[in-house]
Write a structure and sequence with these properties.
467 residues; mainly alpha; single chain
Length: 467
């Protein structure tokens, strides 16, 4: 009996890992685009690295509304697929509504990004850094709609349990980004060196290539092309659009709150000087790389939980969510040990010893990586739990949890430790870690309550999820 009772869990672990690993590698490939920019720009000097860090933080904070609306496609298509009847047309309408929603949000987002340098000056940044960051973002912003549409299509592919096409094109984009960065940043073949602008142009070109490549693979796949996923894209669907906005805006709110707290932390580092910003950038890049794994597990959890919830199989939904959370926690615990033991060596991977201030930057980055190691577990749990909750289309409560954890508790504590407490950048990161632990605990509690009582829908007789 024990073996029979464990069988559904073992099957769920296999199904979760089969779906998650292409999503994880896709996330790592997308993260590698920004990482490649950082590695190339880092060799231009500390000022260029600090400017790209400030610009990237503002870019991703401003991107959050479009990104969140694109992510609404994942729970919508998963639950539509789980219901079964009429899912081909329904999933096409879900993706179309998500694209319409993010398209509406793109123009005001572009307007803000165009004035990146002015915004950074208002936030107290040095004029030289603000100008360089503005140049970088104005080159980077044109690839944003392509990236967001790619995210919506990736959600559809996850709901269909066919995530590998997104992985293939994302990996191809990384291979393209390396020579583009080398050429555009440093010049050659008749083109002058563009510096940080070249890094932004390279990423925009790669985002366009990623979207076109994914559309090409979907069109070539016999199973996927029957969805005609961009068919009648010009036709609005008010009912689906309202649902996409209702689901996507809280996702955007949660992301904005999390991204903004790290963006504000980068701005606080700017008050402490370019060395602090550069060390913060290194620690964020490393923590961000490890975060791609629980993010992928969270995306897989959205699909698996959504499929089960759409089929009204809430026991299967609960099993999928807890499986993903435990897998994410286990991986991040291992990452915590690595960052704590090898932080100094990792920091030097981002720096040229010949550059002024490299030793001081590496020392500070190693201290920040020590704190990053401590909050790895919490960061992984909250990411996966949020993904599981999205599978139930529960997005408003997680947004409120993020607001409390990051802005009411974590950031104020970090500022107190940094300035009155005299801990500087180290104090800011302790505050961020505290906020992450609070968010992880509250997200897990929310998932425990909803999965135990059958989600947000009325309690009904459960039936197994069709395979």
């Amino acid at each position: 009996m024990a073996r029979a009772g464990n069988a559904p869990w073992r099957a769920e672990v296999r199904a979760m890992l089969a779906l998650a690993w292409p999503l994880v590698l896709t996330n790592l490939s997308q993260f590698a685009l920004t990482l490649t920019d950082t590695l190339f720009v880092g060799h231009l000097g500390t000022e260029a690295l600090a400017a790209v860090t400030l610009g990237s933080n503002l870019y991703f904070a401003t991107l959050a509304p479009c990104f969140g609306l694109a992510m609404a496609a994942a729970p919508m298509t998963a639950q539509t697929r789980g219901r079964g009847r009429g899912f081909v047309r329904g999933m096409r309408r879900d993706v179309r509504a998500s694209i319409w929603a993010l398209a509406i949000a793109t123009l005001p987002t572009w307007l803000l990004l165009w004035h990146t340098d002015a915004l950074l000056l208002l936030l107290g940044q040095e004029p030289g850094l603000a100008a360089l960051a503005g140049d970088y973002v104005r080159a980077l912003m044109w690839g944003m709609p392509c990236f967001c549409i790619f995210i919506a299509l990736r959600g559809f592919l996850a709901a269909e349990q066919r995530p590998r096409a997104a992985l293939v094109v994302s990996f191809g984009a990384v291979l393209l980004n390396v020579p583009l960065n080398a050429w555009l940043i440093h010049g050659g073949f008749g083109l002058p060196a563009l510096g940080v602008v070249g890094a932004g142009v390279a990423s925009s070109v790669c985002n366009l290539a990623t979207l076109l490549g994914l559309l090409g693979l979907v069109a070539r796949d016999r199973h996927l092309r029957r969805f005609r996923i961009l068919g009648r894209l010009w036709r609005p669907d008010p009912a689906r659009l309202r649902e996409a906005v209702a689901i996507g805006l809280p996702i955007a709110g949660s992301m904005s709150l999390e991204i903004a707290v790290f963006t504000f932390a980068a701005i606080v580092m700017g008050w402490m000087g370019a060395l602090a910003v550069a060390a913060h950038a290194i620690a964020l890049q490393v923590a961000g790389a490890t975060f791609m794994v629980p993010m992928g597990l969270g995306q897989a959890a959205t699909a698996r939980v959504g499929l089960a919830a759409g089929a009204n199989a809430m026991r299967a939904a609960a099993r999928a969510g807890w499986t993903a959370i435990l897998l994410g926690a286990g991986f991040m615990a291992g990452c915590a040990v690595l960052l704590i033991l090898a932080g100094q060596r990792i920091a030097w991977l981002f720096l040229d010893p010949e550059n002024p201030g490299a030793a001081e930057t590496a020392s500070l980055a190693a201290r920040l990586l020590l704190v990053a190691g401590l909050f790895q577990l919490a960061d992984g749990v909250q990411a996966v739990a949020a993904g599981a909750l999205r599978g139930l289309k529960d997005t408003t409560a997680p947004m409120l949890v993020a607001a409390f954890g990051y802005w009411v508790a974590g950031l104020p504590l970090g500022l107190l430790l940094a300035f009155p407490g005299g801990l500087g950048p180290f104090g800011v990161w302790i505050g961020l870690a505290t906020g992450l632990f609070l968010v992880a605990g509250l997200m897990s509690w929310r998932w425990l309550r909803l999965s135990a009582r059958g989600g947000l829908a009325p309690r009904r007789r459960l039936r197994p999820l069709a395979r």
